[in-house]
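can u do me a favor
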């Protein structure tokens, strides 16, 4: 073979190698893009599934709440109808008996027999429509029993019932606020304490709570915020992982002059 022919053959081989390298690079790029699209599609599908499940849960909760409200309204209507069918003498006799049961409940409560006292107040409630004015103290006293038994949710329910009958019932407000605070529902508790201060500006319990709760509420908000950002970071890492990145590659820097934030990319972060 001549030198020119050998040189020409070598050039052909180099061109073929270059074509092969280019084809391989194109294939690798297509594979990377396909992986990225698959990861994005998977993340999108998972997010849509989570959204769908959350909506179903929300719709179910709304339906359950509506059903409970309807059942409560029906039960109250039946109580009222049954009470209205009584004669005046029968109504008076029930009122006397209810007050006697309340007195028995108070005696039992004073001796620490909270469950027995609760039963007495429940009997008093059942003697007439539960929305009658006289029933407010029965609910409030039963709420006090629930509180002593550390049944704080039930305490809140009974206090709310008492306040629905008598909105300015200070004892019911105080007990509900305390029960809400026991459940770490600090913002709701603070609203009740503020309402108490409106009713009685000299109420020491309300004054102290209005001073004590705001810092705790702020601390609670910061904790919730940290938990939320932690979950968002987990989601971000899941989305960035196919690209060999994580949220640690992105740093948010606060501008002290404006208070705004700018994002800085750090390739070497792990």
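np, heres the sequence
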């Amino acid at each position: 073979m001549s030198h020119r022919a050998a040189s020409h053959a070598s050039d052909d081989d180099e061109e073929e190698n270059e074509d092969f390298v280019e084809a391989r690079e194109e294939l690798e790029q297509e594979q990377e893009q396909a992986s990225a699209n698959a990861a994005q599609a998977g993340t999108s599908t998972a997010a849509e599934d989570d959204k769908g499940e959350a909506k179903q849960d929300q719709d179910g909760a709304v339906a359950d709440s509506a059903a409970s409200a309807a059942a409560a309204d029906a039960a109250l209507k039946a109580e009222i109808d049954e009470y209205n069918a009584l004669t005046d003498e029968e109504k008076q006799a029930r009122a006397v008996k209810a007050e006697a049961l309340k007195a028995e409940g108070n005696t039992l409560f004073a001796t620490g027999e909270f469950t027995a006292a609760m039963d007495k107040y429940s009997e008093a409630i059942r003697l007439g429509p539960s929305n009658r004015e006289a029933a407010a103290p029965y609910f409030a006293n039963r709420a006090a029993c629930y509180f002593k038994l550390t049944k704080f949710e039930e305490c809140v329910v009974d206090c709310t019932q008492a306040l629905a009958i008598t909105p300015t019932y200070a004892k019911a407000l105080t007990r509900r606020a305390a029960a809400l605070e026991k459940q770490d529902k600090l913002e709701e508790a603070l609203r009740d304490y503020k309402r108490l201060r409106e009713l009685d500006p000299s109420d020491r319990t309300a004054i102290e709570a209005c001073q004590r709760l705001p810092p705790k509420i702020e601390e609670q908000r910061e904790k919730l915020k940290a938990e939320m950002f932690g979950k968002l970071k987990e989601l971000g890492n899941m989305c960035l992982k196919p690209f060999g990145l994580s949220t640690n590659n992105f740093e948010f820097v606060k501008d002290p002059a404006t208070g705004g934030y700018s994002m800085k990319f750090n390739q070497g972060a792990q």
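The two ends are 58 Å apart (CA to CA). hope that helps!!
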